[in-house]
Amino acid sequence: MSTKRDKFTLKDRNYMRLALNLASARKGLTGDNPSVGCIITKNDEIISIGQTGYNGRPHAETNAINNSFQNLSGSTMYISLEPCNHYGKTPPCTKNIINSGIEKVLYSMNDIDKKVKGKSFKILNKNNIKVKNGLLKNEAIDLYDSYIINRIDKLPYVTGKIAVSKNNLIYSKGTKRITDLVSDKLSHYLRFKNDGIMITSKTLNIDNPKLSCRLKGYENFSPKRIILDKHLKIKSNSYIFKSVKENNTFIFHNSSNNDKIRLLKKRGFKLFKSKLNKSKSFNLKLILKKLFKLGIRSLLVEGGDKLTKNLLKYRLINQFYLFKSSKNLSKRKDYLLFTSSKILNNMYNSKSLFSSKLAKDRITIYKR
User: Fold this and answer.
1) What would the pLDDT profile of 230-277 be if each residue is shown by its tens digit?
2) pLDDT tens column, 163-175
């Protein structure tokens, strides 16, 4: 391990911050593997950069080595996470680093994967490569929050999101949008960065959402759609029903309606019968475990008040985006009230990451 005598220079910090930024830019888009950023420098100049490839391969270190047009002999590599040291679907990054001629490696934090943790330091040292770790470690821990949850808990990292009016309504009949277009774009960015998006059939049947990412150029990064539909009440004239593609829409249910089950399966939905708890509601943790097995590593929840409240109650939300509009909605017709504010504030307020005006709205981000 690094010692107290190991000093990091201002340039070291700046280069590592660039590596962390590269990793952050691809976070949520690298499948099972963590998103890693890598910088290679020589004679105090950046000569190559690399990021983990989409869906997790190639690894950032390999990309940075392959991207360089210069001889890497005597160079320094900055990596946001400890490089891998074992054979999997790709050769170990430590082997590529050793063979490249790189003289020095700095990485921010140890990988929490037991196959890797702390071993790369020793391997590189034995091969006469100078190694230091711990640079900007706290920033790296924040960056790898979802990866840590995935590896330790075997659960997706869950982001809750809800938009409320000034008078705390989440729905008022006749109103299409609560927040403004800037908040809407951020919501679509969250869809881009998550593997899956979850709602209930109640939300589906009221709002008829598309659940897609509609940021220009990022449409192909739309998340898988997950519907909680206990009694299979999904409407056949809904957008979700009409737009099912292979393996892009999952329904969790507890129905014995064989005709509806056959119809939905024939349409292309993936159906999973899920147990109910004593209160006749879904066991949400079991559903999250199943989603993890299905490859969902990051999950955005855009459900209504009841789903949000249950996820908060069982502490299954890792971070929460609350969008609050500057306008009131009418209570004269059908409306739904957001009642989870108190639970949210009691559980997360002390660790609020960020609260600020966002155009005409206010956004508050909470994190466990």
Assistant:
1) 999 999 999 999 999 989 999 999 999 999 999 999 999 999 999 999
2) 999 999 998 988 8
DSSP H helix total and E strand total for the chain = 13, 16
Q: Is the pLDDT of residue 349 over 70?
A: no
Instruction: Confirm whether 45 is a catalytic residue.
Output: no
- Residues 228 and 256: beta-carbon distance below 8 Å: no
Closest C-alpha among 28, 15, 63 to residue 296 = 28
Q: Which two tokens stand for residue 212?
A: 């897609």
pLDDT of residue 2: 44
∠32-37-39 over CA atoms, to 5°?
A: 150
277 CB-near residues (< 8 Å, 6+ apart) = 283
Asked whether 173 and 335 are in contact (CB, 8 A), the reply is yes
Tens of pLDDT, residues 36-81: 999 999 999 999 999 999 989 999 999 999 999 999 999 999 999 9
Alpha-carbon gap, residue 347 to 343, rounded angstroms: 6
pTM exceeding 0.85: yes
Q: Which of 45, 61, 82, 246 is catalytic?
A: 61
Secondary-structure breakdown of the chain: helix, strand, coil percentages, each rounded to the nearest 5: 35, 25, 45
Q: What sign results for the dihedral spanned by CA atoms 367, 213, 208, 168?
A: positive
Lookup: tokens for 287: 């559903």
Tokens 């502490």 belong to 315
Closest listed residue to residue 251, CA positions, set 281, 290, 277: 290
Contacts of 141 (CB under 8 A, 6+ apart): 109, 148
Could you tell me if 77 and 40 are in contact, meaning their C-beta atoms sit under 8 angstroms apart? Answer: yes
Strand partners, 159: 300, 319
Which residues, including other chains, have CB under 8 Å from residue 199's CB and lie 6 or more apart?
Answer: 209, 211, 225, 226, 227, 228, 301, 302, 303, 304, 307
DSSP states of 184-195: HHHHHHHHHT-S
* Furthest C-alpha separation in the chain: 74
